Hints:
Elements: H1 2-27, H2 34-49, E1 53-58, E2 63-67, H3 69-75, H4 79-83, H5 87-90, E3 91-93, H6 105-111, E4 118-123, E5 129-141, E6 144-153, H7 155-176, H8 186-203, E7 206-214, H9 217-224, H10 226-243, E8 249-254, E9 257-265, H11 268-283, E10 286-288, E11 291-293, E12 297-304, H12 311-327, E13 333-335, H13 338-359, E14 363-372, E15 378-389, E16 393-395, H14 397-406, H15 410-430, E17 438-441, H16 444-449, H17 452-463, E18 470-475, H18 476-479, H19 485-501, E19 504-510, H20 517-522, E20 527-530, H21 532-536, H22 542-557, E21 561-564, H23 570-579, E22 583-584, E23 593-594, H24 614-622, H25 626-632
Parallel strand pairs: 12-13, 15-17, 17-18, 18-19, 19-20, 20-21, 21-22
Antiparallel strand pairs: 1-2, 1-6, 3-4, 4-5, 5-6, 7-9, 7-12, 8-9, 10-11, 14-15, 14-22, 14-23, 15-16
Helix pairs in contact: 1-2, 9-10, 10-11, 15-17, 17-19
The structure holds ligand C2E and magnesium ion (2 copies).
Ligand C2E is lined by residues 368, 384-385, 396-398, 401, 410, 414, 417, 441-443, 473, 508-509, 532, 565-568, 585-587, 592.
Amino acid sequence: MNQLAFGLGALAGLAVAAVAVLLLRLKRPKAPPAWLQDYDETHLAAFEQWPTTALVLDPATEKVLAMNPAGLRSLGYTLAEVRASRFGELFAPEEPNPQAPEKPLIKRVQEASARAPLELAQRCRDGSRRAVECTCYPLQLGTRSLLAVAVHDVSVRRQVESHLLEKHQELDHLAHHDHLTGLPNRLYLQAHLPDAIADARRKNTVLAVLFLDLDRFKHVNDSRGHETGDKLLKTVAQRIRSTMRAEDVVVRMGGDEFVVILKGVQSSEQVSEAAARINHALSAPMIVDGRTLVTTVSIGVALYPNDGADMGELLRHSDTAMYQAKDRGRNNFQLFSPNMDKRLKERIAIESSLRTALSSRQLDVHYQPIVDIESQRVVALEALLRWKHPNHGYVRPERFVSVAEEAGLIVPIGEFVMQRAIEDTVRWRQAGAAIVPVAINISAVQLQRTNLAENISRLTKQHGLEPSMLQIELTESAVFERREARAREASQDTVAKLRELGVHIAIDDFGTGYSSLSYLKRWRVDTLKIDRSFVRDLVTDMSDLAIVSAIIAMARYLHIKVVAEGIEGWPQLEKLRQLGCSYAQGFLFARPAPADECLRYLNNTPLDLTQRLPALDLLENTGSGEHVRALRA
Ligand code: C2E
Ligand code: MG
Ligand code: MG
């Protein structure tokens, strides 16, 4: 551009020199000397044949005194017409700004230099307008101060520039927006959020970052296909966008993750309300391809300046809070707290060491007897996963099972438990024991993601064990509380297949969830295990007593066996016996123990409870005090 301007300047210089000579000649009465005549003609020819417009202007009258033929051709006027016009009639400012009255045109022309040419619109005789740039030089003619102006047609360049600008804006939009939903993307956020934070700092206001992650979106993708998943994401994006104010920024980070930025936040209630609005908007069913889908969202919130000083920290902490929302049962929002960060780090540490636990044989399975209350014989053993961490000792399943579920690690871990339980049972049988069914805990993720019936059928065949020697324990939430009817149906299918194989079905921790007895009947459940929390205070708490007795009575009516979990004392056992409960499990009978120590339960004789001292119980589980410490932790 500069080169062009300099070129123009040089041209203008030459043309102007020629005009000056021309004007001088007009004034001179006598014939000039031969050398000057030659010189004049050269300059005249240059002016006459110059390819771009050159003109001389009187700043006092704003009249054009001379213009070269290229200029006349370009405008479509004769020299006489041009000389009768004022400069502003031939060349006008491109877009006069009505708000800011500009300097007089002639002043601006005077200031137009090669470095900063003046942009004007040339008004041609045929009514067309052409974009031009002009540069100006002062011209001294005798006593007269004139202006020499070089005009350059830039209409083609302008067209190209505006085309390029359009293209650039288009590319910019493409790069900063998500193709699927049309929302701004991660790149946009990276460019925008630091500015928004700086703005909040300057204005001393609060800014909220909401991190959104759809609940179980992967499941929709897996079961309905990516096309449906994409359509769902589009609808979700529209709903989030329409829930927010125009000035709020909604970004799709990728996958099923979105970020919302709220600026100028007045109170935390305002943020909570916005998050609740999103939760509410998304939980209404969506019609995709004629089918109803339900998706919910977990939201984590971090506020500037309290929860983070920069983009990285705010995003990290809102993400942490989002995980907390998932932990709290999904479909809710959580505000970040520093505690969460600690828990998340712990969780990440568990996840990474759990990955090595599988391969480095840190996992083991212990067994706890389930006893017939009347005969005090062991009727089943529950397989319970144990993880002995090389540095931290035993880690409680409650602490790592949910992490394993989130990370998908529960699938290989569950297979390990299943295989080990089958192998141990076969080993007990080979050792001459009177084996009993082994109960295996199955998490919801395993039920959905693995072909459980096929796996059990294959493994039992491989080891020569009857599937009826296995019982699976499902929690209510794993099967009944699925929002999506399809997932529930799929689980019911799996359960039906397992039943066909002869596997027993038990519902674990009964009473803590949906507790629908009609489901128990429909799913033809064999056993239900009353959760420990109802058994603990059975003797003293009247409402626990009422619940437990109601469960026992209704289960009996439905021909479902009942196991009471967590019996630690004789009074509880006595109460359960009175209520008609048939089976029990708890520390009163035995703590979970390694496979080698379980042979003694498998001799078809009643457990001798009178011999049991709690202190001995603790020791025989592990051979050391570690397990006890871990259980108490
Ligand atoms: P759960 O299936 O309800 O297992 C019973 C839990 O109660 C066991 O805890 C057992 O040690 C404990 N328990 C038994 N009797 C008593 C008692 O008298 N008093 C007290 N205070 N506790 C008693 P554990 O082994 O820590 O397992 C906790 C939970 O972890 C299990 O609850 C189960 O939901 C899960 N879990 C354990 N192993 C596995 C597994 O292999 N796969 C899956 N998916 N989950 C497992
Ligand atoms: Mg269980
Ligand atoms: Mg239980």
